[in-house]
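Example (one chain per record):
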Amino acid sequence: MGTVRVEKRKPCGSVRRTWRTETLGADVWGDWFSVPEDGGVLLLPVADPWVAWFRTDRSLRVDVATTVVAAAPVSSFVDLDVDVERDPDGTVRLLDADDLLDRAPTYPRAWVELAWEAWRDVERDVTTRAEPFGAASDRWLQRAADAGQLPRDAVPV
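Predicted structure:
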């Protein structure tokens, strides 16, 4: 276990947001980290073009992104604007298509194609609760709570 800084970068390379995370472990989906400031856990997949936040309230946010670059103690990804969210009640929303449309002319063509394809795939998988967007995060939320990184009473049963 250890501390990893996760950087969300803009396509120009500048850092948009940084999180201090604690390593929880890995599974077939990728590397899992607790993110106490966001009240949940973060999944950095091994090869998929997205990054996912699972919160204790059962909400979920997936940023479509380039593949994560991991170089301890920093992992980073380039945010490709479009996102998928699932509210605690199960409502799924697609976000920020206008942002991608506006910025697409300045992005590499491969990134734009990747973003649209991944956005559709993630929306389908989040809606149907295909793993890792089903119960896969429960184990990691519990592990974060057991380590004192999240409130125990906030972890779903």
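Caption: DSSP finds three helices and nine strands in the chain.
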